[in-house]
Design goal:
CATH superfamily: YVTN repeat-like/Quinoprotein amine dehydrogenase
Helix content: under 10%
GO biological process, one term: iron-sulfur cluster assembly
Number of strands: 30
InterPro entries: CIAO1/Cia1, WD40/YVTN_repeat-like_dom_sf, WD40_repeat_dom_sf, WD40_rpt
Family: Belongs to the WD repeat CIA1 family.
Keywords: Repeat, WD repeat
Largest sheet: 6 strands, mixed
Pfam family, one: WD40
CATH topology: Methylamine Dehydrogenase, Chain H
Strand content: over 45%
């Protein structure tokens, strides 16, 4: 492969102050990639839209009257008709989405403490939630489109930080302060524990992400390790299979936790965010049990912490069909989006300052909250 074919370009696309300086906990795209939701310490959920031909996000809606404490998580349903938010006030709010309008339709209560995460199943029939109360709850949508509790499991001994669904099957994984990850499946009548892996990390397990086919899983944790898991029998259904660790990558240039991980469904590029404010990019190399994780490059966001990273599920095709968007958020209230042009086997990576034309967009009077990030570096790795 020529160097031209191996080239990857990642540069800052926009940065907006989403919550006037207060911590932003999470950013999540809807499943068409047209909208981005954010949430944070200011008790709000904000909906952002990518403006055609302009390098920034615009806030279209602010939902500020549903929660009494910080909002920790937001999640769109796959059908696009619902948005869920989870809060430190121990509640989950469901918004109905119609013609661009977000209306509170349900408020789910029952957790005894802060709700840390919520996620819709691939079919949207189930909503999983997890909490500081050490439990994972499964809610089921009924014929009236209300959510009712159908199962409550407490396989963790400490705070449950995150839940993630398999991309095609009704299989859930949870991550916890107790260092473990747990898999759950539906047996036809109830939700049960499929597999528990104690000491999955040497510290809190903060986040997990499946690949597009659901054959592999990555987790990140307090031990500044990104770990690759793989199913034992790829021909089996995931709900009947077991998971095992096949590779670890220790981030040696940081002793701070990795908080978030997102796996791009098309390029296979893995992004992580952590306590040092650096976004790192990885790819999987090798085959079978010889697969390993290789760091491609990194971006210093100049923020204290990168709390969340999220790849857009849709191609950024306004100008280039081979570019994708990555969103991140931080403690200083900043939400950033990055344009990524990637190949499956990238060796040379260049980070560039926005062009003069792009800089003028950043400084546009009509959107004064944007600014030109000070990024101008060239990184060549594995050459």
């Amino acid at each position: 492969m020529s160097k031209a074919e191996e080239l990857s370009v990642i540069h800052v696309n926009s940065a907006v102050e989403g919550t006037t300086g207060s911590r932003v906990w999470m950013v999540k795209w809807n499943h068409s990639g047209s909208l981005l939701a954010s949430c944070g310490d200011d008790k709000t959920v904000r909906i952002w839209k990518k403006i055609p031909n302009k390098p920034y996000l615009e806030c279209r809606t602010t939902l500020d009257d549903s929660h009494s404490r910080a909002v920790r998580c937001v999640e769109f349903s796959h059908c696009g008709r619902y948005l869920a938010s989870a809060s430190f006030d121990a509640s989950i709010v469901i918004y109905s989405v119609e013609d661009g309008e977000f209306t509170e339709s349900n408020k789910l209560e029952g957790h005894e403490s802060e709700v840390k995460c919520c996620a819709f199943s691939p079919s949207d029939e189930f909503l999983a939630t997890c909490s500081r109360d050490k439990s994972v709850w499964f809610w089921q949508m009924d014929e009236e489109e209300d959510f009712q509790v159908c199962s409550l499991l407490q396989q963790h001994t400490q705070d449950v930080k995150f839940v993630a669904w398999h991309p095609t099957e009704e299989l859930l994984v949870s991550c916890s302060y107790d260092y473990s990850i747990v898999f759950y499946k539906f047996d036809g009548e109830d939700w049960i524990t499929q597999q528990k892996i104690p000491d999955a990390h040497d510290g809190t397990v903060w986040c997990a992400a499946f690949d597009s086919e659901g054959q592999r899983l990555v987790t990140v944790g307090e031990d500044h390790v990104i770990q690759l898991w793989k199913r034992s029998s790829p021909t089996e259904l995931a709900v009947n299979d077991k998971w095992r660790s096949i590779a670890k990558f220790h981030v040696e240039d940081s002793r701070l936790p990795l908080y978030s991980v997102s796996w791009h469904s098309v390029t296979g590029l893995i992004a992580t965010g952590g306590g040092d404010g650096i976004i790192r990019f990885f790819r999987v190399e090798g085959r079978g049990d010889d697969e390993n994780l290789v760091q491609v490059t990194s971006i210093d966001t100049d923020a204290n912490e990168a709390n969340c990273v999220a790849w857009s599920p849709a191609k950024y095709s306004e100008e280039h069909s081979d570019k994708w968007l990555l969103a991140s958020c931080s403690d200083d209230g900043t939400i950033s989006s990055f344009i990524s042009r990637t190949m499956y086997n990238v060796n040379n990576v260049v980070l560039v300052r926005p062009s003069e034309e792009q800089a003028n967009y950043y400084k546009a009077r009509e959107h004064p909250t944007t600014y030109v990030p000070d990024i101008i570096r060239e990184i060549k790795q594995n050459t």
